[in-house]
Amino acid sequence: MNKVSPLSAEEKKWQQNFERKLDQVGGGSSISTPFLDPRQLDLAESVLKQRPNLSYTVYGGYPGAERNAICIFPSQHKSALPAVTAVKITWPGKTDELSHRDLLGAVLALGFRRDQVGDIVIFEDSCAAIMVDTAKADYICTNLLQVGCLNVNCNIAEPDQLPLARDDGRDIKGTVASLRVDAVLSLGFGISRSRVVLLVRGGVVRVNWRPINSPSVQLKEGDQVSLKGRGRISVASVEGETRKGRIRLKLKKYS
Q1: Do 127 and 155 lie in a common domain?
Q2: What is the C-alpha to C-alpha distance for residues 88 and 164, in angstroms, rounded to an integer?
Q3: Which of 119, 142, 161 is the last residue of a domain?
Q4: How many domains does the chain have?
Q5: Do residue 154 and residue 215 come from a single domain?
Q6: Which of 108, 118, 149, 203 fits as disulfide partner to 131, beta carbons 3.0 to 4.6 Å?
């Protein structure tokens, strides 16, 4: 059995705040959330499923977005998507001269909170797209002139005009002794199992967006495992056993 932690105090507080915000929806009013990470989205939807008088839409700019906003409205009203658009950023030089962290840091330095910024997708031609609330896009385009030591150009772009719906994951194949999370993380990130154990106990590993506290958590196909500061992996497929009884795995790694 997976030893997944119950709701943390922080998660309970977040969910309670979200429930209070829902009381603002009524009559002709609707509300939109900031960008939610997958765990927050899960918490929000668990509350919304208990509110049959409300309907909602989820949108992060493109299909498969990791961070999404929710638009919530009375169930009898016409649906609408959250106001999300893309800021397209281009720079001179090579694509890898700027990283996801560089771009996020530059936007946050303009005074934005993390939940005001959605996914950041880097393309192969020295450009990237940052998903933001439509109302914030002009400000970013006007004020984001430099990232690191590189001058950048910013323009507002419709997300559906960008090649966003693509799989950026890198395939990793190998074998593990078991489907324990410490074994799978060791394969996916190239670090020792003893190191993984310390990371799990340090609270920086999540399975399907929930924190875990045991390195013996058993994984299955489709599970997502994130390591804070290093990215995440998904168990793409379990491909049988070797003659020595080890399990063949195919993972997808996302930076």
Answers
A1: yes
A2: 11
A3: 161
A4: 2
A5: no
A6: 118
In this structure, is residue 18 part of a structural domain? Answer: no
What pLDDT digit, counting tens, does each position of 209-224 carry? 788 889 999 999 988 8
End position of a domain, from candidates 104, 132, 161: 161
Long-range pairs of 182-189 with CB within 8 A, sequence gap ≥ 24: 182/215, 182/216, 184/219, 184/225, 184/233, 184/235, 184/249, 184/251, 185/225, 185/227, 185/233, 187/249, 187/251, 188/225, 188/233, 188/251, 188/253, 189/227, 189/230, 189/233, 189/253
Residue 59, in any domain of the structure: no
Q: Quick one: pLDDT at residue 168?
A: 59
Q: Which alpha helices (H) appear in the chain, and where do they start and end? A: 9-22, 38-48, 100-108, 134-143, 181-189, 193-201
| 3-state helix vs strand vs coil in the chain, percent to 5 | 30, 35, 40
Whether pTM exceeds 0.85: no
Domain that holds residue 100: 84-161
Q: What is the pLDDT of residues 112-146, one digit of tens each?
A: 999 999 999 998 888 999 999 999 999 999 999 99
CA 228, 234, 238, 241 dihedral sign is: negative
What is the chain's length? 255
Angle in degrees, 0-180, between the axes of helices 193-201 and 181-189, rounded to the nearest 10 = 110
> Does 108 map to a domain?
yes
Residue 41 lies in a domain: no
CATH number at 180 reads 3.10.290.10
DSSP 28-93: T--EE---B-HHHHHHHHHHHTT-TTEEEEEESSSTT-SSBEEEEEETTSPP----EEEEEEE-SS
